[in-house]
Amino acid sequence: MKFVHIADIHFDTPFENLKNKKSYKDRIREEQIEAFKKVITYIRENEIDLFIISGDLFEQEHVEIDTIEFIIKELKTIPEVKILISPGNHDPLIANSPYNKFEWPDNVYIFNGEVGRYDFDDISIYGVGFNKYEMEKGDIASIKVDTNRVNLLVTHGTLNGNSKKYHDIKESDLSKFDYCALRTYTFAKNR
């Protein structure tokens, strides 16, 4: 199996510190679009089986309809690829989320706030996404994996922290997985 893993694209970030520099904001948006297109082209040209997006694909509060339409159009160009999305704290799976309001291609699976499992071939992919802007933890410790299968984890959160807001993930809970497709914020311990 070949896969591509990305996180934190943040389409339509308002870039408040650039509010007086529209040309910079426009250039960053164009670069985000081009980077995403390059990822899709790479997936298509290299016969990738699985595309994982570990949160913050877009900015829920600012995302434009044309941006969501662009993302969906690009994903439709790789219908043979399994696409797994774990919404993050900037693109949570809430009632008015584009994840709920738009029709996503059939090959897209979006994890919600409960631990989910997606199986294909001899691989089990566990995931949990944000279903609100803040999430204390997603119960990864409770996942029981099948050791006869390849086990992956897909999520967005804070590694070894105590954030109480951004899905605290303990490193000790990750050893049961063969690969962890994460987007994490890591807090260093005082020495």
H/E series:
EHEHEHEEEEEE
CATH homologous superfamily caption: Metallo-dependent phosphatases
CATH topology, by name, is Purple Acid Phosphatase, chain A, domain 2
**Share of residues in strands:** 15-25%
Distance between the first and last residues' Cα:
40 Å
Summarize the main sheet.
5 strands, mixed
| Rg, Cα atoms, Å | 17 Å
Overall shape: globular
The helix tally amounts to: 3
How many domain regions?
Answer: 1
Number of DSSP-assigned strands: 9
What helical percentage do the residues reach?
Answer: 10-25%
Unreliable residue stretches: 187-191
CATH class: Alpha Beta
CATH architecture: 4-Layer Sandwich
Task: Report the average pLDDT across residues.
Answer: 89
Derived from helix and strand composition plus strand pairing, the structural class reads: alpha/beta
Description of the structure:
- The protein has helices at 22-45, 65-76, 98-101, and strands at residues 3-6, 50-53, 82-85, 108-110, 116-120, 123-127, 150-159, 168-169, 179-186.
- The relative contact order is 0.15.
- The model is unreliable at 187-191 (pLDDT under 50).
- Strands 5, 6, 7, 8 and 9 form a five-stranded mixed sheet that branches. A four-stranded parallel sheet has the order 1-2-3-4, with no helix packed on it.
- The chain has a single domain (3-186), classed as Metallo-dependent phosphatases (Purple Acid Phosphatase, chain A, domain 2, 4-Layer Sandwich), CATH 3.60.21.
- It is built from three helices and nine strands, in the order βαβαβαββββββ.
- The radius of gyration is 17 Å and the shape is globular.
- Helix content is 21%, strand content 24%.
- By secondary structure, the chain is of the alpha/beta class.
